[in-house]
Amino acid sequence: YGLPAASSVHKAVEALVAHGLLLRDERGIAFDSPFVERWARREVAPDVG
Questions:
Q1: What residues contact residue 45 under an 8 Å CB cut-off, 6+ apart?
Q2: pTM score, whole prediction
């Protein structure tokens, strides 16, 4: 998928969790808002989903 190093992805995820855009629970990590999820899928990661 052309992702950067795992440490860079981890830092990005942690920042998004800290800003309330991602949620972490026992099932894993998910978007807090369907609107942000849709934007990320369309603009940031079109190859992923």
A1: 1
A2: 0.69
Q: Are 41 and 48 in contact (CB under 8 A)?
A: yes
Digit-by-digit pLDDT tens for the chain (49 residues) are 677 788 888 998 999 999 999 999 999 999 999 998 998 888 877 666 5
Rounded-to-integer distance, Cα 35 and Cα 17, Å = 16
Give the DSSP letter string of 3-35.
---HHHHHHHHHHHHHTTSEEEETTEEEES-HH
Domain coordinates in residue numbering, the chain: 6-44
On whether the CB atoms of residues 33 and 22 are closer than 8 A, the answer is no
- Are 22 and 31 in contact by the 8 Å Cβ rule? The answer is yes
